[in-house]
Fold each of these.
Amino acid sequence: MRKITRRLFIAAASTVTGALSVRNRLALSEGSVIEDRDLKLWYKQPASQWIDALPIGNGKLGAMVFGGAAVNPTSAKGTLSDCIEEPVPTDPAKETLTLNEDTLWSGRPIDGNNRNAKNYLAAVREAVIKHKDYHRADELCQKLQGLFAESYQPAGVLHLDFTHAEDVTEYRRELNLRDAVATTSYKVGEVEFKRTAFASAPDHAIVLRLTASKPGALNAVIWMDGALMKRVESKGDHGLLLSGKAASHVAGAGHPDSEKPVTYSDVLGEGMYFAVALNAVAENGRITASADRLKIENATACTIVLTAATGYRGYDKIPDTRLAEVQACAVQMLDSALRRDYPFLRQRHEADYRRIFDRVSLDLGSSATAGLPTDERLKVFADAPDPSLLALYYHYGRYLMISSSRPNSQPANLQGIWNFQVVPPWSSNWTSNINTQMNYWAAENGNLSDCAEPLFNFVRDLSHTGARTAEETYGLPGWVSHHNIDIWRTTNPVGMGVGSPTWANWPMSGPWFCAHLYDHYLFTRDKEFLRTRAYPPMRGAAEFCLAWLVEDGEGHLTTCPSLSTENNFLAPGGKVAQTSAGCTMDMALIRELFANCSAASKELGIDKEFAAKLETARARLLPYKIGKYGQLQEWSVDFDESEPGQRHMSHMYPLYPGSEITLRGAPELATAVRVSLERRIAHGGAYTGWSRAWAIAFWARLADGDKAWESLIMLMKHSTNRNLLDTHPSGKSAIFQIDGNFGATAAIAEMLVQSHAGVIELLPALPVDWKSGEVKGLRARGAIGVDIRWENGRAISAVLRPDLTGEVWLRAPKGQRIRRIAADANVPFHTREDGSMVAVLIAKRIYRIEMG
């Protein structure tokens, strides 16, 4: 058995123990946001399980790079274990890449709506509003439920087995966020071996480069396998082709058939075909094929290029593309990539990736632990909190978004784009009562608007399938979507009569998705986007909500059935119930949607009559209430929670990501939200990564940077894996969900810049421990780029880059004031009563702001 020679970490004498001067470490040339420092995750051992591997992706293709393989997978819970366990022995003289293609899903388009559901809607409402019989309403809600959604599927696994005469030493595995390249290196004797992997968006391929420092020293076997029905065959002396078929149906968690979850079919269109094509080109030496393997002998270097295709033809089309056509598509992409040599492939990849990644830089200083391997940095983080690790974490979140969500890809799902299981956790689908939305919180303020393109297309599709659900399930106009969505754009309430209504029946994901559409307009001021892509789905969702509202008997409009996402309450008598009327989350989402539609109508000069109806209804919506603890009520009745530490905190939506409740605009309600947040956390809430990320964003909006920092520390300590991926508790272990990464990335940006209340707030929630730093390239609403530099906890300067000409409101950090605004000359400004400053800025000019 090969092993890694252990080496002691020796701290250099020049290690900086305090925060360095930002100006000494950043390139401050005009327009440059490229950091002059390390942006690497790195390790001294291979990944022994899937969760520890390093992700690469180009939006459509993804891989987890292990940098080795478990020595005995079957006895160590498997090389592909999804749980976070103690590391098992690994062999660095092997390589493992698990592969994904973002359209490879089980199932096919099917009408999952329950055609009898509309017959029970009136009975649910009567049970709640007239009789206050919440338990009867829960039972009736299950009669509204339709079929479960399908599951995201793994494409296969690429293996490499290397032949070495001696043990491996000086092992290093890393992921460079600057160029989106994963590298594994080590020595065998005096020979250095290196494996370099990246996923190229312009060439639609995964590229793996193998090198040896000694000519002729590279010897390896390449092979593929996978968890789905498949076969692998060699193609000539240099190629492999993995072909297979996805399951026709996967019964995920909670499904009545979950004990026999996977069904395959030979019928064309019942389960899609897929293919993974691979080609290897050696420098020196030779490559030979034998059955389903390639053998590299006496080479100095080898370039492996891999592409994949599926039979997916669209969310509304049967996946009946024949295998030969799918194979031909994969081979065609491979042939196209092979027309370019390795240096050109890498240059194209890096240029494409850095065009997006380099827009933003963040520096939070350095520390004595900054030179440690990433897993060791994480271990000591709780005892020695290190803001610089949070800067790395922030950029990792941006890297993950660029890697899993690009124009023409599917949106990032529950695991981004990375999954190795046929029956993945929660189907690895789009869980849309927060998780999918949270995936895109960082898109706009993090200067990644183009990465949200798949989400906008997704909402367009849902407005079509959701119109069918609105009519068939509820007999109502417009469109609706619920909690679980798959690639076939399932919008019906899932559950099949056994799902808990609090998740299965939740009907408000449509308005939440529409908030992203309008927010994109606010950040970009792209009126054509508003006209053609945002407003039509927004109007359809508003049309449904207008029809969904009912009288509450006290002069207000309310919703029923209404569920506060995945939380239960204690009904009179003390028994747990789920279904009521007018949950705070419903009111917040509908109030926001109606306001945004009305504003869009005015912006576009259209639909005045419909906007007037929305304004009239909005004025009658059930108002927010403050409960007996001084908290913002979660339900319209001041019920007690059955689980006071619930991970979902949906009633606080108007604070974040909504903007209706602000510290200055609604101070009493903001105080009530703070009480709600404190109560949740005091009872053990925010115990998942994504829930903790939400808490960080709440603290940021409450302008409490130290509490936000405290929650960031908890996130890193309890909900972050060795490779910095977000985790979710699962029994005695934990599994990967990507939403916490994205949510925390967005929250860090909110600590530094906010613009939701119509004013650009600079450093609104800066922790005391973030002494000095600089951020460049963030975005604010109004289509404005923002840079800020601070030292000793005080802002020194800022830069604004408006895309449009107009009036800009700006607020300096607490205890500071704006002294000067200058472009080519000083810019006049005046200060308002609330302390904010107002100035007219000209498009495409650069404005420097000095503060005192």
Amino acid sequence: MPNGGYGQFCPVAMASEVLCSRWTMLVLRELCAGSTRFNDLRRGVPRMSPTLLSKRLRELEAQGVIERVRGTGGAPAEYRLTAAGRDLRSIIFAMGVWGQRWVETHDTLKNLDPSLLMWDMRRNLDPTPLPRTRSVIQFMYPELARARQNYWLIVEEGEADLCAQDPGFDVDLYVVTDVRTMTAIWMGLTSVAKEARADRIELTGRVDLKRSMQKWLGLSPFARERNRRAA
């Protein structure tokens, strides 16, 4: 039993000893979302120190929740969910749905992180409405410091990539807004069309990308559940 455990022979207590240490659930969220490499996990929990992330990964490995797989040919090692870890997916999702439904979401918009927002948008993006040829969408957040104002989503052949530096491609769609507005859209609290009518988001570029933005935009999976419940 870990130090500071509950000392109770109870399934809830035993599970809490494994899952409820600080940052552990967020690390598991990233693993359930498909991140397997250390640097990708760090991008998903940018405020967590590398030392603490390494510690939590070792703890989860020791508990049989994940396994560390050595990379081949010089590739980095990967962390993969075991059967026990895969069983946690429904729990992680249920917690997110509960938080989206019952926690006052507007208050959480003060905890804004543009890098994490863009990373989540990139991995949840739906390329289906986009052409197979390369599409470049530049997001601009004028209220941020110059070094953090610009992000580029590059979608080609059904794959999405994210750059924080100019990739040098022609831009097909410019999206100018503030981080709070973009986060609210991503969380399903509002929509692209509504914010455009309120002049809180400006879209300039290809008409087809503007019209389909709400469809291809990478919304939070919990926002999709919120919309499903509302429907």
Amino acid sequence: MQDLSRRRLLLGGAAVGAGTLLTACTSNEEPTNTQTVGGGGGNPNAAPGQRVTIGFSAPAADHGWIAAITNNAKAQARAYSDVELKEVAAGADAAAQRAALSTLISQKPHVIVLLPYDGKELNSFGLEAMRSGIPVVNLDRAFPDALAYRLQIKGDNYGMGVSAGNYIAAQMKAKNISSPIIGEIAGIDQLELTQERSQGFRDALAANGMRVANRRAAEFTVDTGQREAALLLQALPRMDALWNHDDDQGIGVLAAIRQANRNEFLMVGGAGAKAAIEAIAADNTVLKATVTYSPSMASSAISLARLIAQGRKMSDLVELQVPKEIILASETITKENASKYLPLGF
């Protein structure tokens, strides 16, 4: 059975011919475009309250999206004078992350925010923390047991596929291509989020009388994106559209496309990396759009963890408690709106 730890998601080599884009996506420098909320205005929850300690854990920042998760969480915590963020190392796999988090439980933070290597493998930790009286805010990788978390925040994986499929269908109809040849480069197939993305893509295409002609699964890394894209391009000597699930993985996909000297199709990315948005705005590659899966969820997680610990509610809701589940919408970034979304890129 393949190793499905987050480490496997994060490790990837540089793609030939993609050096500039790779640097933009995976630089270890602190980005200036972290996404935070609060700090003033008419928000009643911005006022300082009970001082709280929030434990935080996420995999090592070896991938642009993961780096943005950690940077956003830290920036949001700094925005509140009443929050202390206690970060613990995630380790090399789910077992190591669980050990680090168990140590955190003994320190009794008011709430724990984490992005797990694997939601299923860390489910038992969530149950342990919740039983000990520490609310858990889970990011991205769903815990299967609703008792394992107080709040779960995810991107809309199914909606990503729908957004990508709808954009491609609209473009094909605008070009009067009745039976388009469409390719797909997914992430790790065993992961539920990959399956949800592909299902949404299939459903949106089917609603428009279209289908995927060839699909390859990569591993959310540059080198596997390049490898699988090369194989897909060989299998489809002509293509009208391509959806790649992940913009960091897309660095390798674009490298393979350049190496094959192919440009007869349009490509849609996934997640909303800053370098991808810049390429879309420049309109000088096959990449014409990307669908969002924003790491801003980490900023929201810190803000809501603070409210949970302080016993406050969300100011715009009538209900007295922070919700149990939040799923962020997936939006489509094109040349026309790229400047609007660029500050949100990671």
